[in-house]
Each structure stands twice: as C-alpha cells, then as structure tokens.
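Appendix C: a fully annotated inverse folding record. The material below is reproduced so that readers can follow the format used throughout the book. The structure is listed first as tokens, followed by the designed sequence.
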C-alpha cells in the first residue's frame, strides 16, 4: 500500500489551525500508528463482530463504528441545522458512553454540525472523547468555530490526519487513504476528505467522505486494487461528481450505502450515479428510505440490517417510502454479503431481528443470499394509531396492517402481536396469510375474516405519541419490530 509516511500531526488552536510537529499517544491508550513505527495495521484473524452504523441524519452523514472489544469511532456528526441532535439521540439509545475516536471527514457544516454538541456532552456528562482527527483545512463558518472552541475548552487532543496514517482500533484495521500531501485542488475541502478503509477479516468498508472526481482519481492511481471493499459509502451523498465508473470498478463493492435526504435540494442521489450503480448490479441502501443502515461483520461476511424494507435496485430506490431523519425503531436483517449467517452484534438495537432474513426488496445481482423462510417476507404495511374522533369510542379505526410480500403462504397460528406495554394478541389457530395478501388487525371487536382480524381489546392499544409493533412467532421468537413516532 502506498504510504506518504509520518505519524499524526497534532494541531494547536488559536482561532485557526497550525501544524506543530509529531504527536504522541491518544488518551486512553488509543495510540495512532503509522509506517514509521513499523505498524501497517493489518487486521489479524477476525474475532467477534464489528458494526458499522450509517445513521439516518437526512441531508448529511454520520457513521458509528463499534469494534469487537467495544471501542467506538464516530465519523462525522450530521448537519448544523439539528446541532447533532439526531446523532446524540442515536448514541444514547445504543448506550455509547464514550467516543474513542471522533473523525471529521472534512469541515463542511453538514458534516461537523454536531461536533461541538457531542464533544460537550461526552466531556461533561459521559466518559469523554479519546481524540479528534481532522484533515486540517479550516472553514469560515460559525459551526467550525464552535467545534474548535469545544476542542479547546475541554482540552481534547486533536490530530491533523493525512494519507499514510492509521488509527489503532484493536483487531480492526483502519487505514487513512486521504487527504494526500500536498493537498489536492488548492485545498478544496471535499477533494481533501479523510478517506478511511476499515478491514475486519475478509470484509472491508470504504468511507470516502465527500471525495469527488479528483480525489477519486488520486486514490485509483495511488492504491488501485487495494481499494477493493465489501461495502462502499457513496461519496458526497450520491452526487454525480463522485462514485465515478472507474472508482466503482476499482473498489468493486458488493453493496453501496447512500446518506442523503429524501427530498434533497441537490437531487441526491442523482440519476446519473444511480445508473452507474445499476450498470454494476450494486444493491443500494439509502438512509432516506431504508432508515439507519447497520452492517455487522464477523470477518467472514456482512449482515445488512435496516429499519425499513425498501427497494435496493438502484433505479427503484426512489419508489421506497421516506423515513424521517432520527426516527427510532429496530433494524432487521435484509441481506447477507458472503459468508455464513452472522451471530451477535447489536445491529442498531436489533439483536433479536437477525432471524427475520428479509430479502431487502428488488436487487439486480450481487452476492446476497436470500432467505428461504417464507415468514421473512412478512411486513408491517400500515399503522393507524390515532383513530378518528375519540380513540376509545372508535377502536376499530385503530389498526395495524400486515402484508405477506412473498410467494408462499405463511402459517401464523399461535403468532403474537404486542406493543411496548406488553399488550398481546394471538393469531387464531389455523390462520394462514396467503402470498401477496394483507390482513388488518383492528383493536376492537368484530367477526374475523381472512382479511380482517379483531383484537377484542376494551381500550386503545397503540400509543398515538409513538410505539413499537412487535411480532413474535409461535416459539416466542421475535421476528419483526417496527416503531413509529
């Protein structure tokens, strides 16, 4: 692998960033490593699982990585217009009490929007920030100034991070492939993104920041086939200026993740880039329709888990229903990229969902292994928690619709539906949902039919302010959990 050499450079703050020579270890024994120390950071035989969470933050990006021993890395923190709220809430929900490595891919306000708030929270209310990594190109924004103020106020170690550096992350290799020395394109921030390649056993993830055509061309020239990765985070939110055909061919991903808003004012992901994905039959997961995407690797293969089941055919991704940024809810396994089924991993709070093995919608090839369990095709098609008028007097207008999106009937005998308060309904013995059919489960009373079932509850079940529809099979194993707010 091409290296430009040198350990991390530490940054001093005095309104702007100044280069100040080589740095020592990161607090908490999370020492940066590099070729000068004779450490190429090659992953050893994989033990345990590594999780890569692409958090649904709208027209922005934030990626949480959790290593096998629990070490954490947060790459970018969302948009300035929500001040890190979506990211902080996600981290709290998943009991992340410390950020060992906070990486800034580049200093645009839609990538560092939560930096100040996250540093403030973890330094005052949690177990701290180990170190911050930054490409070293300043921005003239209030968001950037607040980020540096927070670093200085809490005396957090800040490293200028460049090609050839590596971040110590246990058995997971984390190589920094960009930005190079000297910077590209007159220090343009997008073209000098911190680019990370994470390796766990036989699997790998390429996080390309907002790299555009010039940085992608540099990476191809410098690394060639060494860019090959199991999953690619599409550059610049799916802009046509990124994810060039040559770059995709060099990386050769089995799937792509795009982080942008459903109604992106920039048209992200663009039709041009989606066509490039389609030409290479790349399953595409879009945070705007799939919600948060969690990839769990055991070193042999990658489990793809999402909040929503939505099309993954690149030319059909816009057919999915939008999901609001920050929306809660567990993730369900939709696909498997190589290897045998992954065990363990928090999966964004959805350990119990790995049995669902949903087929993830339309795909054109790739190495995904579809589930052979017909029950994996069961979906929650609609939830109406707020009945018209008085909920208590109109119980049958409170309902959940289940759909069998598969090609085989599903025997739901003894299966149960429950809410967060443990109210429970059991499907009648012998009830089968035919392929392509739906059934509406109404809260009140009535005569059951193939298309409508009645809970028989005497009061509302589903909380209008937010709840979770939990479906379990006859053995009591959770199969599906869908939250709404």
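Designed amino acids, in order:
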């Amino acid at each position: 692998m091409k290296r430009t050499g040198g350990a991390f450079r530490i940054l001093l703050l005095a309104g702007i960033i100044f280069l100040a020579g080589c740095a020592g270890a990161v607090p908490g024994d999370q020492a940066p490593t590099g070729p000068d120390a004779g450490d190429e950071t090659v992953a050893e035989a994989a033990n345990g699982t590594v999780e890569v969470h692409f958090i649904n933050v709208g027209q922005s990006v934030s990626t949480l990585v959790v290593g096998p021993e629990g070490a954490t890395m947060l790459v970018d923190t969302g948009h300035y217009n929500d001040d890190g709220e979506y990211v902080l809430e996600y981290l709290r929900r998943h009991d992340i009490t410390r950020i060992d490595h906070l990486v800034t891919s580049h200093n645009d306000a839609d990538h560092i929007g939560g930096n100040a708030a996250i540093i403030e929270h973890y330094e005052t209310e949690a177990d701290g920030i180990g170190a911050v990594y930054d490409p070293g190109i300043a921005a003239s924004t209030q968001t950037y100034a607040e980020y540096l103020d927070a670093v200085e106020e809490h005396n957090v170690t800040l490293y200028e991070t460049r090609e050839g550096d590596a971040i110590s992350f246990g058995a997971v290799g984390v190589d920094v492939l960009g930005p190079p020395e000297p910077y590209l394109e007159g220090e343009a921030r997008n073209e000098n993104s911190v680019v990370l390649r994470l390796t766990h056993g036989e699997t790998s993830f390429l996080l390309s920041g907002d790299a555009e055509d010039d940085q992608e061309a540099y990476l191809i020239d410098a690394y060639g086939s060494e860019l090959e990765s199991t999953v690619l985070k599409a550059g610049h939110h799916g802009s046509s200026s990124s994810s060039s055909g040559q770059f995709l061919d060099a990386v050769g991903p089995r799937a792509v993740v795009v982080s942008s808003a459903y109604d992106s004012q920039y048209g992200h992901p663009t039709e041009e880039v989606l066509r490039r994905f389609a030409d290479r039959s790349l399953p595409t997961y879009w945070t705007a329709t799939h919600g948060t995407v969690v990839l769990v690797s055991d070193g042999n293969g990658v489990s793809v888990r999402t909040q929503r089941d939505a099309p993954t055919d690149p030319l059909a991704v816009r057919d999915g229903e939008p999901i609001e940024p920050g929306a809660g809810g567990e993730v369900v396994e939709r696909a498997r990229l190589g290897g045998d089924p992954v065990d363990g991993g928090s999966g964004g709070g959805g350990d119990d969902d790995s049995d669902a093995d949903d087929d993830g919608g339309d795909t054109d090839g790739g190495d995904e292994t579809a589930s052979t369990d017909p029950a994996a095709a069961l979906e929650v098609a609609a939830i109406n928690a707020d009945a018209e008028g008085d909920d208590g007097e109109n119980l049958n207008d409170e309902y959940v619709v289940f759909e069998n999106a598969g090609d085989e009937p599903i025997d739901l005998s003894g299966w149960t539906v429950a809410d967060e308060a443990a109210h429970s309904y059991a499907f009648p013995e012998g009830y089968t949902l035919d392929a392509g059919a739906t059934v509406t489960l109404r809260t009140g009373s009535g005569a059951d039919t193939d298309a409508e079932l009645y809970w028989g509850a005497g009061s509302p079940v589903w909380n209008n302010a937010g709840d979770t529809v939990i479906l379990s099979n006859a053995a009591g194993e959770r199969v599906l959990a869908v939250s709404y707010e």
